Amino acid sequence: MEALAIGSAPPRSGLAVPTRYSHLRRPRTLAATAAARRPLAAAHMDAAAAAGGRPSPAPARCTRAETEPELGEVVTSSHAAVEADAAGATEQGGNGSPVADAAAAAGASIEGVDGIRIRRRPVTGPSVHYVGPFQFRLENEGNTPRNILEKIVWDKDAEVSQMKERRPLYMLKGPLEAAPPARDFVGALKASYGQTGLPALIAEVKKASPSRGVLREDFDPVQIAQAYEKNGAACLSVLTDEKYFQGSFNNLEAIRNAGVQCPLLCKEFIVDAWQLYYARSKGADAVLLIAAVLPDLDIKYMLKICKILGMAALVEVHDEREMDRVLGIDGVQLIGINNRNLETFEVDISNTKKLLEGERGQMIAQKDIIVVGESGLFTPDHISFVQNAGVKAVLVGESLIKQEDPGKAIAGLFGKDISKAGAA
Description:
Elements lengths: L3 E2 L24 H21 L23 E2 L2 H12 L11 H5 L4 H5 L13 E4 L2 E4 L10 H19 L6 H6 L6 H12 L3 E6 L2 E2 L3 E2 L6 H10 L4 E5 L9 H9 L6 E4 L6 H8 L4 E5 L5 H14 L2 E6 L2 H8 L6 E5 L11 H6 L2 H9 L3 E5 L5 H10 L3 E4 L1 H4 L7 H6 L5 H4 L1
Parallel strand pairs: 5-8, 5-14, 8-9, 9-10, 10-11, 11-12, 12-13, 13-14
Antiparallel strand pairs: 1-2, 3-4, 6-7
Helix pairs in contact: 2-11, 8-9
InterPro entries: Aldolase_TIM, Indole-3-glycerol_P_synth, Indole-3-glycerol_P_synth_dom, Indole-3-GlycerolPSynthase_CS, RibuloseP-bd_barrel
Organism: Urochloa decumbens
Keywords: Amino-acid biosynthesis, Aromatic amino acid biosynthesis, Decarboxylase, Lyase, Tryptophan biosynthesis
């Protein structure tokens, strides 16, 4: 990982005042990088040795340095550099140190510590091995994905590692400064709800899915986005995963550059803080954070980065346990309830009502959190059901994109014209 030099001391006389992205600097020397990398890389091995066992793989999380770096000190983790910046911009919430370090040293899984359900990478390493010119496969529970989401996350982890090698964090400084200003995603949802009295629509630009295959052959992301906006969408969700959803960041950029005014959610599987910077550099106004994939500390950490970048974060939950975790995190403005079961992939919209009953619903109201309904929404009755449960926005893709005219399909979904022209 590339080294980054950051400074936490105030500006000195005669020196330029740091800019918003001044912590994204090119590494100084390879020697300094190697010297700084050794203690961090060896930390997990040393801890495991002290526990009397074999060293276990470092947990897949976004850790930060234990101490804030002084001016000019080299930090090997791009996340550590951002965390130092985030700490100065936002008060640290909850437990501010990596909670899994001790458990990881003893060989405990992150799932057991943080309650996440998706392993971030194969526990026992890859299943494919090479001996000379020969390839063979050894599959076991530790290197075989338990469901499609876990498979996607494992592939995404490898993909992001390659992307970071090609474009280290310091190389994103220019694109970030050149990116168009972030639009108010949360404000757009509130305005739409206030105008129509119906859940605000986040319409999804989505060509395919791993379970349904190609949803639309004649797929023009810009035309679809413009049709959504014309027919009442408050915001848009743009799939950027290529392997499983046939999306791309080119689609996101094209929609932003085409003059579409709706704020854009980058619908990506976030496993690394680098992705937040990359999404913002491509014009994203919001990102998706999946609680089943990210430990609490990572969510807190990424929320701070989003705040610095001016982006909103839609934190997605699937069940009561994930909802309780997210409600315990400060700074959450949007919670998405996905009605799809991660184990069976069955969809049940009553899941939304179950997660919003009782004390959870009261806490959401007290914190002024907007709840977004996701999956299984195809009819006006479905929209009415989740609205009565407490939802103020919905994210809908398949039921719109498969229609001959995705824009006009919005009126069919809500049972009325929700566009500005219709309201007038």
